[in-house]
């Protein structure tokens, strides 16, 4: 363990560094730049003035650290520009402190931030060679790294006034290092003097141990590995507290020039020529630079007989440049008395044997890569993480945040298993995509998001292999880079809701017959007129009919929903979609300019559609989808301002939501979605949807969790109705996928009964029934059907009309909507009884027998006024009665003498 106390010499050294070194450095700068006046007091005075006028306060920012995305207590993914795991002082092996101090700053605990001896020696050397290098204390190196990190944190691509990139961000990052380490001439000396100024100030504010630990936590150890903990784990797969002497000496050597001495680029062996001169051997076996210094110490040990020839060759065979640097560090430890001779020899003969253990970053290594990618897109696009794209990227890759997500491991595992079981990663002849998303209805928390493809951010791989992509199919263009999918009949939800919001009943009869798509009103963008008289058939060619929204929803009848929409305003339907959280995938509002939009020709995201159905399940309260529950700093401090704002808002009345749910429940119980119902006792609502032969959907929800499943073509090419996988049409894999996912969601989240539908919105509506008696059967059927009534042709009835004429209908006048209207044709075998009242019975009998051959005289009543011939008083059946021709019509009459 290195010493930590500051001595009086150290304090004086700091004062000397502030006062005396100013003059010394000033004279040296002057000697290099203006030799002619170097001996004058003016030069020294000028240099001192420059030194004193430099900023003396260096603000130590938080270290750049990886941002970690969590699900519960499990790491979902990490992202970083610098792989770093800061540690406390006692979490580093003492031998590491010894190694770094002996090789970099042996008088660290004796000086006050600037080592006068080392600095003066370096300045004199640099003055002769014109290049500033070496001589920096640990405090100065810490200062240099702090300044580099400040530069790197703020690095962005430089653009000209036209927005063209002048320097890429990588080039700017490289300049941060270059300008801080290799500046020469006056700029180099000024940089060195500034480092001194800051180092002296830091030693007044921080302890030696704090500065030493700060240096080991900030220093680069090659590539993106920063800090001793990350370096130890990356190169040797051990924590910094468990580093051995050889490992510590190797890392202390690497930090001096990371990209030269790093040991993760393939093993570099050493070979020898006939004279015993060592050469580097590159990984491909080629020979590059001579490096005799690499084995100088080994030669000494071999020549004095301390190690055997076999040990010599073993030690030299591997990473020769780094081995030479390691031997230098070991020799400094030995000279300082920090290790024994035996320890030195043992470490010297031990080959450098790295165990490279890369720290994974990015979503590709995540157990839920597409959910992870969606979270990343939120971080990179939501203003909560910064006003600019650069600020948001910094939050993701530098700020060391802990992002705690809403992902539910059990539901996610079920979703991914369903993908693996039922959906192919790719299909020949099309770019096939399947996605699922589950959302908590009462909160909007996204519980799971799975996809059939394999995740990659390599654009070339994604372009050449349809099984790979980074696009999140469940998302939209802003969050997930997806252009969405045609919603098909799942979009009928919004027509159903608007119907109810207009006070219409789900049991009201609507014209849903097969016919050209009817013209529709759109008060926002202009009415839709079907000029071409285009017809749209129903799924599976089922027949259209006059029916109710309850029936149409259960059977997903296109023609029925066209009929409903024709009685509404398309603009209102679009507004319903918007308030329930659904927009086009590109972020634009739904417009419903076309009648076909009613049945889902617009491209939307599965996540948005899941949220809409969750709104119905949640009693009409829409909760914006959220994937981030909370955010903390590296020290555990809550950062609520970094949690993207999401809210829950009532958008439907409870009555409308409950009635819509009652219609959607029929879908899951005997309707088109029955195959997706796990039938586990949890009440469900849902809706199926297809768009031509390109997209298929299954959305279902309990009162607690909504799940949306999509399977279809990503680019609109291909036929999922005629393509099979594992015994199922691709169109049909939506059912078992949704069923399996929802079963697990029900298991962990449950679900209650849905509220009863509203009485008014389920009422039977009484409507006027047209009178069609006397019309032909064809005319009567058309008249009633056009008015929205179901027609039943009954048995012929007695009538004197021709047999194709309607002789009777039931009911007539008015009836509840949905009541079948029975029309009865004439049988042509009846006649109307003529009115023969007042005629003589004989004449009346002759008249009646023309139609009713069985007519007879009936009862006679004596009446003097009846006269001798008699007078008819009536018939049975009465006049006007329609009766079969075989009926025996009886004539009643009076006569003065009935005998």
Automatic annotation (TrEMBL):
Keywords: Carboxypeptidase, Glycosyltransferase, Hydrolase, Multifunctional enzyme, Protease, Transferase. The keyword Transferase applies. It holds the Pfam family PASTA. Transmembrane segments: none annotated. InterPro entries: Beta-lactam/transpept-like, Glyco_trans_51, Glycosyltr_51/Transpeptidase, Lysozyme-like_dom_sf, PASTA_dom, PBP_transglycosylase, PCN-bd_Tpept. Residues 764-827 form the PASTA domain. The keyword Protease applies. It catalyses: Preferential cleavage: (Ac)2-L-Lys-D-Ala-|-D-Ala. Also transpeptidation of peptidyl-alanyl moieties that are N-acyl substituents of D-alanine; [GlcNAc-(1->4)-Mur2Ac(oyl-L-Ala-gamma-D-Glu-L-Lys-D-Ala-D-Ala)](n)-di-trans,octa-cis-undecaprenyl diphosphate + beta-D-GlcNAc-(1->4)-Mur2Ac(oyl-L-Ala-gamma-D-Glu-L-Lys-D-Ala-D-Ala)-di-trans,octa-cis-undecaprenyl diphosphate = [GlcNAc-(1->4)-Mur2Ac(oyl-L-Ala-gamma-D-Glu-L-Lys-D-Ala-D-Ala)](n+1)-di-trans,octa-cis-undecaprenyl diphosphate + di-trans,octa-cis-undecaprenyl diphosphate + H(+). This is PASTA domain-containing protein. It comes from Microbacterium wangchenii.
């Amino acid at each position: 363990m290195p010493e930590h106390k500051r001595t009086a010499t150290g304090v004086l050294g700091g004062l000397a560094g502030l006062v005396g070194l100013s003059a010394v450095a000033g004279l040296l700068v002057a000697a290099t730049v203006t030799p002619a006046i170097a001996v004058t007091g003016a030069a020294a005075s000028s240099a001192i003035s420059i030194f004193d006028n430099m900023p003396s306060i260096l603000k130590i920012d938080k270290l750049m650290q990886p941002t970690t995305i969590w699900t519960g207590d499990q790491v979902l993914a990490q992202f970083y520009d610098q792989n770093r795991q800061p540690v406390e002082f006692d979490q580093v092996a003492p031998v590491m402190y010894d190694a770094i101090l002996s090789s970099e700053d042996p008088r660290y605990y004796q000086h006050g931030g600037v080592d006068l001896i080392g600095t003066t020696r370096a300045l004199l050397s640099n003055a002769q060679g014109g290049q500033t290098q070496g001589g920096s204390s640990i405090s100065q190196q810490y200062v240099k790294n702090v300044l580099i990190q400040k530069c790197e944190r703020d690095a962005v691509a430089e653009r000209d006034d036209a927005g063209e990139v002048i320097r890429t961000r990588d080039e700017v990052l490289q300049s941060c290092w270059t300008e801080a380490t290799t500046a020469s001439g006056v700029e180099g000396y000024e940089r060195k003097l500034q480092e001194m100024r800051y180092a002296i100030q830091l030693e007044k504010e921080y302890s030696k141990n704090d500065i030493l630990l700060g240096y080991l936590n900030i220093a680069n150890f090659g590539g993106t590995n920063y800090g001793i903990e990350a370096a130890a784990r990356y190169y040797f797969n051990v924590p910094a507290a468990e580093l051995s002497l050889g490992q510590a000496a190797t890392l202390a050597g690497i930090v001096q020039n990371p990209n030269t001495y790093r040991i993760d680029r393939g093993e570099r062996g050493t070979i020898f020529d006939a004279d015993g001169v060592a050469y580097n051997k590159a990984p491909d076996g080629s020979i590059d630079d001579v490096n005799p210094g690499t084995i100088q110490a080994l030669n000494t040990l071999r020549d004095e007989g301390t190690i055997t020839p076999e040990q010599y060759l073993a030690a030299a065979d591997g990473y020769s440049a780094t081995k030479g640097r390691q031997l230098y560090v070991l020799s400094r430890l030995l000279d300082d008395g920090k290790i024994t001779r035996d320890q030195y020899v043992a470490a010297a003969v031990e080959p450098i044997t790295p165990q490279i253990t890369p720290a994974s970053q990015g979503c590709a290594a995540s157990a839920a890569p597409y959910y992870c990618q969606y979270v990343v897109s939120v971080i990179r696009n939501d203003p909560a993480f910064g006003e600019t794209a650069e600020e948001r990227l910094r939050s993701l890759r530098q700020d060391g945040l802990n992002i705690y997500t809403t992902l539910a491991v059990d539901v996610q595992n079920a979703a991914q298993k369903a993908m693996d079981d039922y959906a192919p990663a790719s299909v020949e002849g099309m770019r096939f995509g399947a996605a699922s998303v589950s959302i908590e209805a009462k909160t909007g928390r996204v519980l799971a998001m799975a996809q059939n493809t394999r995740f990659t951010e390599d654009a070339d791989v994604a372009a050449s292999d349809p099984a790979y992509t980074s696009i999140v199919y469940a998302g939209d263009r802003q969050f997930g880079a997806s252009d969405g999918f045609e919603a098909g009949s799942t979009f009928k939800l919004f027509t159903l809701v608007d119907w109810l919001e207009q006070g219409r009943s789900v049991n009201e009869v609507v014209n849903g017959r097969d016919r050209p798509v009817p013209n529709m009103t759109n008060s926002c963008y202009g009415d839709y007129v079907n000029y071409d008289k285009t017809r749209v058939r129903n799924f599976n060619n089922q027949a259209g009919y006059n029916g109710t929204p309850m029936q149409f929803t259960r059977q997903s009848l296109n023609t029925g929903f066209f009929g409903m929409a024709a009685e509404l305003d398309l603009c209102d339907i679009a507004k319903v979609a918007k308030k329930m959280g659904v927009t086009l995938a590109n972020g634009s509002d739904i417009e419903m300019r076309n009648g076909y939009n009613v049945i889902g020709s617009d491209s939307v995201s599965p996540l948005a559609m899941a949220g809409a159905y969750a709104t119905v399940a949640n009693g009409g309260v829409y909760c914006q989808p959220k994937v981030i529950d909370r955010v903390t700093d590296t020290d555990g401090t809550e950062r609520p301002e970094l949690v993207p704002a999401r809210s829950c808002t009532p958008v439907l009345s409870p009555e409308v939501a409950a009635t819509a749910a009652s219609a959607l429940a029929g879908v899951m119980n005997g309707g088109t979605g029955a195959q997706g119902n796990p039938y586990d006792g949890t009440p469900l609502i849902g809706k199926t949807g297809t768009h031509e032969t390109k997209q298929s959907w299954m959305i279902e929800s309990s009162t607690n969790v909504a799940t949306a499943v999509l399977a279809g073509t990503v680019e609109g090419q291909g036929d999922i109705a005629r393509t099979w996988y594992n015994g199922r049409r691709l169109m049909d894999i939506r059912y078992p996928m949704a069923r399996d996912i929802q079963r697990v969601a029900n298991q962990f989240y449950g679900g209650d009964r849905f509220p009863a539908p509203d009485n008014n919105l389920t009422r039977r509506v009484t409507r006027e029934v047209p009178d069609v008696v006397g019309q032909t059967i064809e005319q009567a059927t058309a008249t009633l059907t056009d008015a929205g009534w179901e027609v039943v042709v009954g048995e012929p009835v007695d009538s004197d009309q021709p047999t194709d004429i309607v002789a009777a209908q039931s009911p007539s006048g008015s009836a509840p909507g949905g009541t079948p209207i029975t029309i009865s044709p004439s049988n042509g075998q009846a006649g109307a009884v003529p009115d023969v009242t007042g005629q003589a019975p004989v004449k009346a009998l002759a008249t009646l027998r023309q139609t009713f051959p069985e007519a007879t005289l009936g009862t006679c009543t004596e009446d003097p006024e009846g006269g001798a011939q008699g007078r008819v008083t009536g018939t049975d059946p009465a006049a006007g009665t329609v009766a079969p021709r075989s009926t025996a019509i009886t004539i009643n009459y009076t006569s003065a003498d009935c005998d």
